[in-house]
Amino acid sequence: MKKLFYLPFVLLTMKTMAQLQYPVTQKEAVTDDYFGTKVTDPYRWLEDDNSAATKAWVQAQNKVTDAYLSGIPYREKIKSRLESLWNYPKFGAPFKKGPYYYFYKNDGLQNQAVLYRTRDLNGVPEVFIDPNTLSSEGIAALSGLSFTKDGTLCAYAVSKAGSDWSEIFVMNAATKTLLTDKINWTKFGGAAWKGNEGFYYSAYDEPDEKSKLSKKNEFQKVFYHRLGTSQKEDMLVYQDKEHPLRYFRVGLTEDQRFLILNVTEGTSGGELWYRDLSNTGQQDFSLLVKGFDTESSVIENKGGLLLVNTNYKAPNYRVVAIDPQQPARENWKTVIPEQREALQGVGTAGGHLFASYLKDASSKIIEYDFDGRKIRDIELPGIGTAGGFGADREDKTFYYTYSSFATPAAIYQYDIVSGASTLYRKTELRLKTDDLVTEQVFFKSKDGARVPMFLTYKKGLKKDGNNPVLLYGYGGFNIPMTPGFSVSNAFFVEQGGIYAVVNLRGGSEYGEAWHKAGMLLNKQNVFNDFIAATEFLIAEKYTNKNKTAVRGGSNGGLLVGAVMTQRPDLFKVAIPQVGVLDMLRFQKFTVGWGWTVEYGSADSATYFPYLYRYSPYHNLKKGVSYPATLITTGDHDDRVVPAHSFKFAARLQEYHKGPNPVLIRIETNAGHGAGKPTNKVIEEAADIWAFTMYNLGMKFKE
Question: To which protein family does this belong (predicted)?
Fold first, then answer.
């Protein structure tokens, strides 16, 4: 890149909100040739997050944004109300390891939840790990936790400032004493214990310090760490020198007989390999499930047969038994057949299987024995999301959680033998949740597909076409959007808004067919679904286009960027968060290469034209009046690097014509979202709601 001669910034001079002046952003003559198509990229220099010019640009943008937000008369009232609503005890479901029950708890406004333990759930718990003590700013978070079978040793992973990089530490659980063992440069993985002697893990080579948050991650490897030794002495268990862009993750069956290697080339599809550790003659991994065109995962070992959850010849998934000695697909035996509902996962506890299905995006749990005989449907309180159906084979009970858009998380004790669910803990907060109503509606997308949507609002809502609405969506990577309670979203409803969650194609709500209908060359379906949802709400008199906001993060940030560039007339407010906004270059940074199985790649003549047609950064047009836009990102986001948001903001500010503000909010010491401290979460939520409400013409209700 040539040397930059950076122009001085024009800082904010505001007589009114409508007279925003944005920083002048330097442009460069950068052009790429994609199969004969010339594509300009004048803001390429913003991809260098370490340069002085980029840092100066970030500071100037934040000054403009802060000045605008501070001018919203009720911004501080919103923050105060959010702090009040947030300030209640939040508990995770207890889980048993050794003689102790462990659970997470946040007293209310603690930056990170604390891990407690107790021998008796009616007794006084003690602190086991408090991540708040690991950083004065609260930016260190637990990103993984793994105990030995007997619960005497614990390996826990810590990430800092929102980065995906993590460090693994080892603790003697009995004495809460840290051992000398420490593992660096792990990402998207944890520790898989083998007895009490050591554990398996995945890691990358040590990256360059300057580019560790942006450089493409390649050649992940699998190691075995023996306790009491240094990481340099760890045994290399698996590597693939021929395929630098593959993920390798390992795990053990509960009886620790089989070591399972998951090999993926991205976020969809993968192979399964195994080692029978009881067979001293097997030194290498053997293939269990071949190819990358299906999704499969090992559930457990059943007498030498491996139970596997797979979508091979079953778009809604099924459970099969595979004999490792005869793994050919024609030898598979069906244990749980494919159902009408999409199977999301299978847990084990007490020698039983717990299959989690989605019925129109709401949880449905069925208990089976290991031979696939149905024992019972587990009765849930209503339309919502339930999770946590897993424990050790010898356990008789476990604890699971249930929540909905209008119901804060409640914890239930489940008796495996009787099937009885007993309320263990109910969440108490400073909000009248009885005033909240959730309904599920269905609408037709552009191609006639029937798509569900959840609407949450206060009782007594009038469908007069004048209600403020915020639509949230994701639509990708086989991830479903299911009902769940959020204090932040409940605040918007409390203020008179409608919170809408759209179950877009690309997710797993209706199995792999639903996923495939929103990926690769079908990605436009996702955007059409979101646009159709908005048009439905307007047609049904819930709202009008001047009262409509759209929001999404990561792949959902791409969603917002795409719909606001395709239909700028339809939305009043757009909030693209940590979004994938440059669809021609995402694969060149950190783990972006793993998304090509979902999106395709601009390096392909097949996918380039399609990606170019919807890439938000490349589809901004000069002279268009875009919605009031608040882009959010973090300076330590090493999953979707902040350059996506930087470049999109720069071009949006250049091209946009009209009174709506188009701003970017760049958080420091923050990443993609995981592990973000509570104080930063509340500050960001206050800014987003202040921006949204102000531009939707809402007044703050005391």
Answer: Belongs to the peptidase S9A family.
